[in-house]
Amino acid sequence: MNCSIVPPYLLSRIADRPDRLAAAADAARRTLMEFTSVAETRQLGRSAMPPSSGTAFSPKLRRTVFDALGQQELPGKEVRTEGTPPTGDPAVDETYDGLGATYALFSDAYGRSSVDGAGQPLLATVHYGRDYDNAFWNGAQMVLGDGDGEVFQRFSKSLTVIGHELTHGVIQYTANFVYQDQAGALNESVADVFGTLVEQKLRGQTAEQASWLIGEGLFTPEVSGTALRSMSAPGTAYDDDVLGKDPQPANMADYVETTSDNGGVHLNSGIPNHAFYLAAVRLGGFAWERAGQVWYDTITEPGLPVDCTFSVFAAATVAAAEKRYGSGSEESSAVQAAWEEVNVMV
């Protein structure tokens, strides 16, 4: 199982074009080789249980950033801890700030302390590997590569990437969706949802003002694209002669049946992503307040199946909206209409 931000199909496209991008193709091949080990580590992480009421964790922000120094051994050398000044290394300082912004979203908006809800320290490693073309959550911490310099820049440049990966940690301790087929696509989608909400909250943006892009700023100027994914218009994030065209669907009519990428988890996540965007825009204002609250209530509701389908999840979001805001409320109506627009039956 793989919870990396860059999907394997995109890395494969890059790896197949050494004639155009020699350094990037080499980096992509090496990154693809890491997928199995990352997946095995992530599988171990899935078995982690929420801390008991007797835990010694304190409900406050505690960040530690490590430097892998170009190696692939974790966590690496400790380079910045909670409350210490900036180091001058952009990757370290962007990551430190991103950890804080993600903590702030979940704490301020939903009353959650850290990924586990009990103040677990937030750990991150930067400068992982040589020209490593990805970022991932391994069940215990976030890991960020520096990119190859031809296609990808350093992964700490995008706050949505940091928010996305840490949200995989939140999912691990809440809904714990299996990383396969529609449940896996929901895992990816929920990570995208809260990844963009981290950015929107930090910038003070309304739903109408936000870009709704995941991984904006990762591509170098040589790439014809703005981001890895678009929640407002799935399938439009990039259109490049090497990378190809963004293949994400926005509607169940275009659902991709595949055995690769764990059943298309990075592809079909575009459908629930777009549903969230539609609900947020219908409600207006700050998306983390009402739409985000509904999604948070849904993933923290006991009994949500780990092998959840889109339809089951959609029905759960409507139920969560009705539970918090009332049956027939503006919120429940907006959520139901959003799912209907992407042809997911509630």
The Rg value, from CA coordinates, equals: 19 Å
Beta strand %: 5-15%
Order of helices and strands: HHHEEHEEEHHEEEEHHHHH
User: Can you give the helix content as a percent range?
Assistant: 40-55%
By CATH reckoning, the class of the largest domain would read Alpha Beta
CATH topology of the largest domain: Elastase, domain 1
The total domain count is 2
Q: Specify the CATH architecture of the largest domain.
A: Roll
Name the poorly predicted regions: 38-56
Q: Tell me the overall shape.
A: globular
Q: What number is the mean pLDDT?
A: 93
Describe this structure in words.
- By secondary structure, the chain is of the alpha/beta class.
- The chain has two domains: 8-173, Elastase, domain 1; 181-341, Neutral Protease Domain 2 (Neutral Protease, domain 2).
- The chain is 43% helix and 8% strand.
- It contains eleven helices and nine strands.
- The protein has helices spanning 8-15, 22-33, 35-46, 90-110, 159-173, 181-203, 261-268, 270-283, 291-299, 310-325, 330-341, and strands spanning 63-67, 77-81, 122-126, 135-137, 142-144, 213-214, 229-230, 239-240, 244-245.
- Strands 2-1-3-5-4 form a five-stranded mixed β-sheet, covered by helices on one side. Strands 6-7 form a two-stranded antiparallel sheet. It has a two-stranded antiparallel sheet with strand order 8-9.
- Strand 8 (239-240) and strand 9 (244-245) form a beta hairpin.
- Helix 6 (181-203) packs parallel to helix 7 (261-268), helix 6 runs parallel beside helix 8 (270-283) and helix 10 packs antiparallel against helix 11.
- The longest helix is centred in the middle third of the chain and has 23 residues, at 181-203.
- The radius of gyration is 19 Å and the shape is globular.
- It starts with 7 loop residues before the first helix and ends in a 5-residue tail after the last helix.
- The model is unreliable at 38-56 (pLDDT under 50).
